[in-house]
Amino acid sequence: MEKTGKKRLLLRILCIVLAVLLALIVTLGIAFVSVWHNEIGTLMNFKLLRERNDAHEDGAVYRMDVKGGFYFDDFLSSGGAKKDSELIAFISNHVTRGLIDMGIKESDIGCASFTAVTESGDKLFARNYDFAKTNVCITLTDPGEGRHASFSTADLKYLGLDTEQDVGGLMNKITCLAAPYVPLDGINDAGVACSILMTYQGEPESNNAVPTDQNDPEKDDITSTTMLRLILDYADDVDEAVELIEKYNLHDSANTSFHYMIADATGKSAVLEWVNGTDATDNDGAARKLVVTYNTGDGNIGQREGESNFQWVTNFILQPGYYQSEEDKAGLDRYDRIYEDLSATGGVVKDEWAAMDILQTVGRRSWVPGTVWTVHSVIYNLTKKTALWVSNENFGDPSAIFEYSFETGELTAGVRP
User: Fold this and answer.
1) Which of 53, 71, 187, 408 is the most exposed place for a label (fewest CB within 10 A)?
2) Is 34 part of any domain?
């Protein structure tokens, strides 16, 4: 009887211990889900859309539907970031909870953007993103709380992920949670689209571009890609986008310089540039000032610009007198070709695919084949709030064509008509 009683006591103690451990595990699990529920939901939606094709120098294409607000309001209210390391620290502490050692990489981007109007009157914004082979992520956000839903594209190399490998493993996928902070172009549900383009400003001894690095103590700070996120989340039109940007010191990302193009559903567009003097003297990023060139008054940068009802940009500063020679204008040949194609029809194109044909004409595989490719081409219909997106110049391959509509909220495979 005594042995049986001891066994019962031990069994009872064991049951109590197991019950306590189970309760602890459940409590920790609930706490984990409570803290990470948006991130878990986002990771569950991360999926491969198109496999890589190394023979064509194509990276993989992914899709991520971002749950929640991804802490961007917290980023802005904390004063933003003066440099990439501060942005990385914020993302690591808030988005990845300090689990991932993240990095933002230097880049050599050569891109193009333009506006056009379809025969039916729809306003279009076109964009080529030129870079070395890389994986990209189509990033869909809908944070609510007074912020716009958006469609954007993130280059995953920019987050430090290997371009020669698929995005595999939990840690790499967690890194992709930072994609909303690094959009390179996008459109929001108000019909505002924007893109970032490299400018190669200044002539330092290192032969690298000099980043814009403003330091007005009265303003908060923002980096290149988070400025695009600011536009996508909060701007109802071009004017509001400019008003938002003017409140911040710009600090260009990736140790290089950029300018930006914005357009809205009314047909208004603008190129935003930060300059100080000429290219030969523009070596102090802190001394640069914002210059906004609207399509409604761009005659100051050239006769053909002033006579055109469309706007276009590649990789050189548009301000007159900035360069000593035409040869110093990176992407001038593509700039001239875009003008030639658009001016032939007065900036009117049949439809999105006709605008895509212009992007194809200046795509890097056909223009100047080499180590830089056109990673994606996209036509944003600002009137209908849609996106026509093509991967790696595969304009006739249905597996590389995607269409998105804010009205339906669906990203579908596309087919060239």
Assistant:
1) 408
2) no
State pLDDT tens for residues 300-338.
Answer: 999 999 999 999 999 999 999 999 999 999 999 999 999
> Does residue 310 fall inside a structural domain?
yes
* 380 three-state secondary structure: strand
Report yes or no on 366 lying in a domain.
Answer: yes
**Could you tell me how far CA 98 lies from the centroid of its own chain?**
23
169: left (phi > 0), else alpha (psi -120 to 50), else beta?
left
Residue by residue, DSSP assigns 130-188 as: EESS--EEEEEE---TT---EEEEEEGGGGT--TTS---SHHHHHHGGGGGG-EEEEEE
- 339 located within any domain: yes
Rounded CA-CA distance 389/186 in Å is 11
Taking the CA atoms of residue 248, residue 253, residue 259 and residue 260 in that order, the dihedral angle to the nearest 10 degrees is -70
Question: For the chain, how many structural domains are there in total?
Answer: 1
Q: At what angle do helices 224-234 and 238-245 cross, to 10 degrees?
A: 140
Taking CA atoms, 202 is separated from 27, 28, 108, 273, in Å, by: 57, 54, 15, 13
Q: What pTM was computed for the model?
A: 0.90
pLDDT (average), residues 13-41:
57
Listed residue (273, 308, 266) closest to 291, CA to CA: 273
Read off the CATH number of the domain in which 120 is found.
3.60.60.10
Domain that holds residue 184: 45-413
Q: Which pair of tokens denotes residue 12?
A: 């009872």
